[in-house]
Amino acid sequence: MSHFPSPRFEDVLLAAERIKPLVSRTQILNSSLLDSWLTPEGIEGAGHRIFFKAECMQRTGAFKLRGASNVLAALAEQGEMPTHVVANSSGNHAQAIAYACQEFGLPATIFTTTSVSKVKAAATEYYGADILQFDTREQADEAVKEAATRSGVLWVPPFNHPHIIAGQGTAAFEAIQDIGEVDAAVAPVGGGGLISGTLLAVRGLCPNAKVIGAEPLNANDAAVSLREGKIVKLTETPQTLADGAATPCVGELTFPFIQQLDDFYEVDEVQIAYWTQWLQHLLKIHVEPTSAMSMAAVAGYLAEQESAKRVLVILSGGNIDQAMMQRIWQTDYLTQPPML
Amino acid sequence: MSHFPSPRFEDVLLAAERIKPLVSRTQILNSSLLDSWLTPEGIEGAGHRIFFKAECMQRTGAFKLRGASNVLAALAEQGEMPTHVVANSSGNHAQAIAYACQEFGLPATIFTTTSVSKVKAAATEYYGADILQFDTREQADEAVKEAATRSGVLWVPPFNHPHIIAGQGTAAFEAIQDIGEVDAAVAPVGGGGLISGTLLAVRGLCPNAKVIGAEPLNANDAAVSLREGKIVKLTETPQTLADGAATPCVGELTFPFIQQLDDFYEVDEVQIAYWTQWLQHLLKIHVEPTSAMSMAAVAGYLAEQESAKRVLVILSGGNIDQAMMQRIWQTDYLTQPPML
After folding, report:
1. What is Dmax (Cα atoms) for chain A?
2. What is the ipTM of this complex?
């Protein structure tokens, strides 16, 4: 079991106040064309409405800054600032830690592998962090563990931490403050930090709303864990466009939240590419496949509704390398509009 | 010569008031990473700053709605509304006309070719316009001319019209209202409506600022026209990623404005793809190559400056089909950051 207590709705409220000066209040985007396409004939009411919380426009390009900022800001409140921060990540969490540490004037070191994307490494270094590269992920994980034992050094994990979960929940919290009550909220599931925080925020603000998770079918450890009732780890490195949700397993803190979800979708690679193209095209944002994946769940949910619904979608980020963009756009899905 | 009078700064002011309820006041985006990369060592002042006016987030996905709305709103003011609107276009102008006519409750018909992109045709029809497809562009142009002779029918040209030019100028006008004075403004040159309006707005608000145009080298009719001192028409259909600037020639109304520009850049296809990748990556928006092309001019301008400059870039739109996205992303330019 984790040695951290499970976060509650109150922790999301505190996080929202705490990180206000550190994060952007990202906008809510809509597409009237998409709304009309996803509203079947004869639905009761004015038609479905989808509200996109554009965390791809967040500083550092992803929601991860919310959790990282919340961890450091909470320590600052308590007067327990570390002298050095370390993290193991090759992606959005690394950039978030680097940026948040720069804001607090703290040195940060990121432990990663030699296969780290040059673009992501350059951004992490731009935000002032040092990068240590290892041959394998296991070596990087071992080294960060060793570094974290030193006095004054704080290791910030990517999702399995109450302040990370509460911080990530502030995206849904802000969104519902801005748009009012929703009938459903959807977010991607990697390690589970975002979906857990989203669940806390939505249950606190709209107790009757459905909270729905989406995961790549090719990295469906959370779905398998849900079926088996215990955390199951992927045995191989998953191949998926939704790289932000390719985490090997969920956390001890996040799994109980995932078990409270109202529905859960496993999304195949064609669907992921399809929705990435359509969201980029309709919303005019550079949104990553991990975010667009949620739309398969939205379409599934809306297809079952008999009256008009308001759905919140947390678009997690927009950091995509060239190889990924090429894969997303290799087949033309824009000739197949997503009519229900 | 055109039978229309040349627009003035006052026309931009009037247009800005007139179209306020019809267009979005699009945001200004920045990238601190890009600013730092484009600021050489030893520059006087805090460093260059680039302000992006995100017209890709405009309704219908491009600045074209400004001009189209201004034409119709001006006629409405004068009590001279047509009974039907026609236009010949296969791109952003068609969507703008369709949308604006829907706002005014006017029927619209778009004359285009059978090669029109299905995605763009679908959006145009969604906004309520009829589409007539012809085998060749010449046939479509002939048919729209014939239609426009009928009583009550108004043909709205894509750029060679004073209210179109003044309307397009409202993008720069709004931007300078929001960010204050700039040292330079850059926009792409197709038919010349956007750059002409931008020149009017910038000269009116910041008389000392440079106004700079950018055009694809592969469709450099404006550059050739500037060199020859008269409007020269492309003899072949140009092959360029910057399809919004592939217009065969500039207009009689726009050419005199283009002749007043402070500088003009012809941009090759590698540079266009390069900057499209970087702007999509850094700004997290789905911006089209025609817009990103301006960055070659920005980099050229900034490389010659000895003190810190504030530059406004009008990002014209974000309507990109799959074939274009594939071409933009086929080579990896994100491993080559744009350091000066």
Report:
1. 65
2. 0.95
